[in-house]
Design a protein that fits this description.
Oligomer: heterodimer
Largest sheet of chain A: 5 strands, mixed, barrel
Strand content of chain A: 25-35%
Number of domains of chain B: 2
Helix content of chain B: 25-40%
Number of helices of chain B: 14
CATH superfamily of the largest domain in chain B: Alkaline Phosphatase, subunit A
Radius of gyration of chain A: 15 Å
Strand order of the largest sheet of chain B: 5-6-4-3-7-1-8-17-2-18
Helix content of chain A: under 10%
Number of domains of chain A: 1
Radius of gyration of chain B: 25 Å
Largest sheet of chain B: 10 strands, mixed
Largest interface: A-B, 31 and 33 residues
Number of strands of chain B: 18
Number of helices of chain A: 1
Structural class of chain B: alpha/beta
CATH topology of chain A: OB fold (Dihydrolipoamide Acetyltransferase, E2P)
Order of helices and strands of chain A: EHEEEEE
Number of strands of chain A: 6
Chain lengths: 157, 494
């Protein structure tokens, strides 16, 4: 079985997102093929990964597409940011702000058009934006990621 | 049978002391099954031989309620209703209830409970391998207050010893087998000025050097290497720069493995083994990849310890650490999945040992604030919505039971936790969100709760202890948790 691969720390933060998966040259599947994965109009972050933590076919299909993911808003790393982290499970404290805290497995950085108004950690939300991949370090927060939603909006539900 | 006839029949019974087979319900399937159980129980004879081997398997946070959930989950996986499913340790002949409180805590933590099980004394919450005279976090109070662990005691008897966990090996329960610390949080570093003890990771390698731990398999690699050292998975450690306890272990002749393939290739000839399969805790069973299962680690440890211990036997502590973590996250789906993996490990330990010379003890260190809603019909998915009882049949109706707010609810709930329905932005008011069966059965579903907490809590409720093998019959009644140590010690020394 293939061992998981992790990305290296860069800056102060490192998002647990895949480092592998683009080598396959087979045709990229259409997003429409994954409608069964969509529940309540949204995908789940976990569906972006294969079991070996490489990107899934859904992630490939999402590239450049405006898509919606469901989860919870983690408490902000800093105030007044157009950025938050979406998680599969609610996190009452910012897991990226304390060195001894364990990070949740499934996270997706969300870059919004406007400053984020924090919602309670235990309220389920959806975030809609353009799915983008590729190594990126956020200069303002130091948050390093290989996948994210940009130009995003969010709402409860 | 009319009332008159029944009365006459019972009067006849009272005079003639009829056998159970003569009762009118004797043909009932439930009656027959219970008679079979009684017959098996009557055959039991206490085993008073010396226990060559002692294995204690601890499912962290798996109290009677949590265990009930895992029983139903496991049975439903096999296509049944679940209620009547029997987990491997539920066939063990001996059982007791266990009071888990710590000396200073009605609601216990795993450090205090682990110390009770592994040293024979109750102590304070948050400390390991020390008595209640220490002040948590104050290193100066450790002097003179350290107590012996069962691994140290069993080593003195000539036995091989091991610790296996799906949590970090430096986490409370596995560390209760080898560490002496005034604070469970000292996993990889000590506060400034603390010179009276070593950090927990260092204590594990010290124990391997001393021979009081021969096999150590689990998670927590980051606590053994420095910030400047990159592990096999490309992640940095947490220790001070330059510190590398894995390299130190290897210099001592310890085999080091970090994934499932490495463990499969490792020698089980008695050579000490350190397995660190994950940077922090090992993965939940539902996501596990590249790491051995708890049952596989248990099998490996038994094989290696049997080789090391020879005729003197071995002592092994096995912990399912992530049952507890899933409950802290109010995520019942992963709690029961790891609970099933624990049951598989128990079955493995049982299959690889002889009841005649091996005492197997199965328990939990504490329970969680888990609770179960009603009234649900048979076959209701234990992770799903509570379905109505069918008055005309056995299986539920398929219609969710509704609360006064008109909404359905899951069978499993937690009293507190991140699934609280109360919202900070509404002055901690709130209401229950709508919930579909599909959402309830999602692997990431967070059970609804009332009291908002970042992490769901333990509870002080009793846990069960199951046992088989030499002197297992001493585990009966309602016991203080530290009695478990004394039974294991007694079994190994008689």
């Amino acid at each position: 079985m293939k061992r998981r691969e992790f990305l290296l720390n860069s800056g102060g933060f490192a998002a647990c997102v895949p480092t592998v998966g683009w080598a396959d040259t087979s045709p990229v599947p259409k997003l429409e093929a994954f409608q069964s994965k969509m529940k309540h109009g949204a995908f789940r972050i976990r569906d972006l990964y294969n079991r070996d933590q490489s990107f899934s076919d859904l992630a490939l299909a999402c590239e450049g597409q405006r898509v919606t993911f469901r989860g919870y808003m983690t408490p902000p790393i800093k105030e007044e940011l157009a950025f938050f982290v979406l998680t599969n499970i609610p996190m009452a404290v910012c897991p990226f702000c304390e060195p001894d805290l364990d990070w949740p497995n499934d996270i997706l950085p969300i870059y919004t058009n406007r400053i984020v108004w924090p919602l309670p950690f235990n309220v389920r939300i959806t975030a809609t934006g353009v799915f983008a991949t590729g190594a990126f370090t956020d200069e303002e927060t130091g948050f390093y990621s290989l996948a994210r939603l940009v130009d995003a909006t969010y709402r409860e539900g | 049978m009319t009332f008159k006839h029944t009365l006459a029949f019972l009067m006849t019974l009272s005079v003639t002391s009829a056998t159970a087979e003569e009762l009118p319900q004797a043909g009932n399937a439930w009656f027959k099954a219970a008679q079979d159980t009684l017959a098996e129980t009557l055959k039991q004879q206490p085993n008073t031989d010396t226990a060559k081997n002692v294995i204690i398997l601890i499912s962290d946070g798996n109290g009677v309620g949590s265990n009930y959930a895992t029983r139903l989950y496991s049975g439903q996986l096999e296509g049944g209703y679940g209620d009547d499913y029997v987990q491997p340790f539920e066939t063990f002949p001996n059982l007791a209830l266990v009071k888990t409180y710590n000396v200073n805590a009605q609601t216990p933590d795993s450090a205090g409970t682990g110390t009770a099980i592994m040293t024979g004394i109750k102590t304070n919450s948050g400390v390991l391998g020390v008595n209640e005279n220490v002040r948590r976090g104050d290193c100066t109070t450790i002097v003179g207050n350290e107590v012996a662990t069962l691994n140290e005691v069993m080593t003195d008897m000539g036995k091989a010893t091991g610790v296996v966990s799906t949590a970090r090996l430096t986490h409370a329960t596995p560390a209760s087998g080898y560490a002496h610390t005034v604070d469970r949080r000292f996993e990889y570093k000590l506060p400034e000025g603390c010179t009276q003890q070593a950090d927990i990771a260092t204590q594990l390698i010290d124990a391997m050097e001393a021979g009081t731990i021969d096999i150590a398999l689990g998670g927590g690699r980051r606590n053994f290497i420095g910030k400047d050292i990159t592990d096999e998975e490309g992640r940095k450690g947490k220790r001070a720069k330059g510190e590398n306890l894995i390299a130190r272990a290897e210099r001592l002749g310890v085999q080091y493995v970090w994934d499932d393939m490495g463990m499969a290739l490792a020698k089980t000839d008695g050579t000490p083994v350190l397995g660190l399969f994950e940077r922090s805790h090992m993965m939940y069973e539902t996501e596990r990849t590249g790491e051995p299962s708890l049952a596989e680690m248990t099998a490996f440890a038994i094989k290696a310890l049997s080789a090391k211990g020879g005729d003197q036997g071995f002592f092994l502590q096995v912990e399912a650490g992530r049952v507890d973590h899933a409950s802290h996250a109010s995520n019942a789906a992963r709690m029961v999945a790891d609970g099933k993996a624990f049951a598989d490990a128990v079955a493995m330990a049982d299959a690889l040992t002889d009841d005649g010379d091996t005492l197997i003890v199965v328990t939990a260190d504490h329970e969680h604030a888990v609770a179960f809603n009603g009234y649900c019909g048979r076959g209701t998915n234990i992770l799903g919505l509570c379905m109505e009882i069918d008055d005309a049949g056995v299986e539920h109706t398929g219609e969710p039971a509704l609360a006064k707010d008109g909404k359905p609810y899951t069978v499993i709930g937690y009293l507190n936790g991140p699934g609280s329905i109360l919202r900070k932005d509404r002055n901690w008011n709130g209401g229950r969100p709508d919930l579909t069966q599909e959402e309830a059965l999602d692997i990431d579903n967070v059970q609804q709760a009332l009291i908002p907490r970042s992490s769901e809590t333990h509870s002080g409720e009793d846990v069960a202890v199951y046992a088989k093998g030499p002197w297992a019959h001493l585990l009966e009644g309602t016991l203080e948790q530290n009695v478990i140590f004394h039974v294991m010690y007694h079994a190994a020394t008689q």
